[in-house]
């Protein structure tokens, strides 16, 4: 079965508040799927429903092409909130307790600790760990049952740049093992770096879904600057120019199809201008995200 998770017309209401509104979504095997949305968009509620932690009001979902069951749940490793570990116990002892709760063998613990790069600190007390290490141990606890699917809700929340980079690297490594990952986050840059697919939620509704790689295939802008008073006029005269403006001591130009930074630079060189700055900026997920949110308000 190519489909790991299928959601159809899923709705969750809390009195007058609709947290998830008629959501339909399909996630394929082997993808790293990012759920994006501002606070209150329904990301965590959706994850809670598909993990059978929150009761749905209506709609349905399937795991691996079948109605959800306890057997399917065993194939899913999840972190919805920061797991609570015993501060005075080591990583190994904490994972032994997790293994007992999940009813899985303990002989996978050393492998998991190596996977999350905590093996060298496996005998140290949990309270001595940095925030990044604590979060890696959380992911390790979800990996204990060797799941087919990993669900991570804001896995880099509260971490410093180094901790974020460590979690990003870990997610990429887990994905290389063939696991399907569903990741809810508000950090757009991180989603763009680790996810293959994404969906944008707003007020419980899905307003966009697509491939992350398609975001950068959109319109490109070029930053250009040269110490030459004729630059502005030459840029305006260039046949490929679609739009031009001056910002932060450089010209920002967008070009028509068939033109790019190479053709623009060749044109400037032919007109005896050597640029000191020429950078192509592809569309970011952040810009796409903001455009999608703005369009949904219209």
Describe this structure in words.
The protein has 2 domains: 3-215, Rossmann fold, CATH 3.40.50; 221-281, Alpha-Beta Plaits, CATH 3.30.70. It is built from 11 helices and 13 strands. The protein has helices at 43-50, 70-73, 91-102, 109-115, 131-143, 161-176, 188-194, 212-215, 231-237, 261-270, 285-296, and strands at residues 3-14, 17-28, 32-36, 58-63, 76-79, 149-153, 180-185, 197-202, 205-211, 221-225, 241-247, 250-255, 277-281. The strands form 3 sheets. Strands 5-6-7-3-8-9 form a 6-stranded mixed beta sheet, sandwiched between helices. Helix 4 packs across helix 5 (131-143). The radius of gyration is 24 Å and the shape is globular. The chain starts with a strand and ends with a helix. 31% of the residues are buried.
Reconstruct the topology from this structure.
Elements: E1 3-14, E2 17-28, E3 32-36, H1 43-50, E4 58-63, H2 70-73, E5 76-79, H3 91-102, H4 109-115, H5 131-143, E6 149-153, H6 161-176, E7 180-185, H7 188-194, E8 197-202, E9 205-211, H8 212-215, E10 221-225, H9 231-237, E11 241-247, E12 250-255, H10 261-270, E13 277-281, H11 285-296
Parallel strand pairs: 3-7, 3-8, 5-6, 6-7
Antiparallel strand pairs: 1-2, 1-4, 8-9, 10-12, 10-13, 11-12
Concise structural overview:
The protein is an alpha/beta fold and 298 residues long.
Summary tags:
298 residues, alpha/beta, Rossmann fold, Alpha-Beta Plaits, 2 domains, six-stranded mixed sheet, four-stranded antiparallel sheet, 29% strand, globular
